[in-house]
Amino acid sequence: MHSEDTQRIADWMRELAVDPSLRPLEDSDLIWAKAQLSDRRDAVARAFRPIAWCDTIISGLVGFVACWLVLGWAHSLLISAEGIVSPTLLSLAASLVVAAVIGIAYPMLVDE
Fold first, then answer.
1. Could you tell me the CA-to-CA distances from 55 to 58, 95, 96, 97, 105 in Å, in that order?
2. Which of 2, 33, 94, 103 could bond to 60 as cystine, CB 3.0-4.6 Å?
3. Mean pLDDT, 10 residues at a time, over the chain (112 residues)?
4. Domain range for residue 62?
5. Does an H or E element contain 41, and which?
6. What's the number of domains the chain is made of?
């Protein structure tokens, strides 16, 4: 019984050795180089993460300032509704809304 099992295993191993669907393993040096490259890429991605957040914050601030300036300029051209809402507060509120939308949407658009 023992030699019969051994013979079946040996036959199976011979068939497995010549199976064309199995490809040979890559060179160990190549696998090591790929792992090192992957580690470097991950390190660079981690290093740039704070820069990406700063980019998002600065983009939001630029949008905020641009919106406030445009609304302030538009206010000077239009007749203001005195007594209802302060034009400064109105432009500030609109600018905050635009900055919030940019701050939320920008990271989602960049990640895609």
1. 5, 18, 18, 19, 13
2. 103
3. 81 77 75 90 90 83 77 62 64 75 74 56
4. 2-111
5. helix 28-77
6. 1
